[in-house]
Amino acid sequence: MHPHHHGDKGTVLVWSLLLTVAFVAVESLAGLFAGSLALLADAGHNFTDALALALAWFGVYFSRKPPDEVKTFGYHRAGVLAAFVNALVLIALSGFIFWESWQRWQSPKPVREFMMIAVAAAGLFVNLLIMWGLRSERSHDVNIRSAWLHMLGDALGSIGIIGGAIAIAFTGYVRVDPLLSAFIAALIVWTAWDVVKETLNILLEGLPRGMDFGDVAEAIRRVDGVLDVHDLHIWSLGSRTHALSCHALIEDMPPSASEAILQRMNDMLGERFGIWHTTVQFENSNCPGCPIPAANHRHDRELR
Predict the structure, then answer these.
(1) CATH of the domain at 225
(2) Domain carrying residue 249
């Protein structure tokens, strides 16, 4: 059983959400006062960051709920669904920002570049602070990684705004502002696309990210007592909860003797591939396709 620090994650997400919402209000007002589309676009990006954090918290809350008679696998995909919806919202927002950037390019307007620098610097600090708070979970949870990527995109956007504002101050070329807006929109698409791919893969029960089907099959065949494996299926219940089912061919033996093979197989799958939820059907080598009923076991350490 691997511990999930839901309480820690939930607390970090709540504080990150409150901080982001407060900054969105400040940046929106500053963007209007400074006449900067780049700041307003970044405020929009930050608003979707707030949505990402809210959905991430929602996912964490529901993923900790135990299985029941209706949701027999539990709520592990709540966070995945949240990340998928959030990524789609991001892509839609990027289209709007591209359009507004084009309008501003055709009709450029003056901006208050020094206010842009001050607000973008504050935004960069907020983004880096939240990224630091989410750093430990981003490699394990696609929902948290979605929120972390939002923050990375905003941090890069803030750096771009600072650089652009400095360029406007020295050159007076105000079209830098819509260029920065388009740059931020491109960042939004970049941060969303990877999340869309991974969440769709999980929702369509594809092979878990970073796992090789052939490697798993070969590893099972190398377990002492296993002659062959077929009907192998590997999928994800959530961002870091993987499941496997297969038929394994073994020598003719009493069902009690197959328990040791099953234990070796499950230990290997868990320790090497992080697969802790398995359903294995043993078949008699003298009668391919004939099951050994007592050895049809589900191994579930992750969902208990």
Answers:
(1) 3.30.70.1350
(2) 213-300
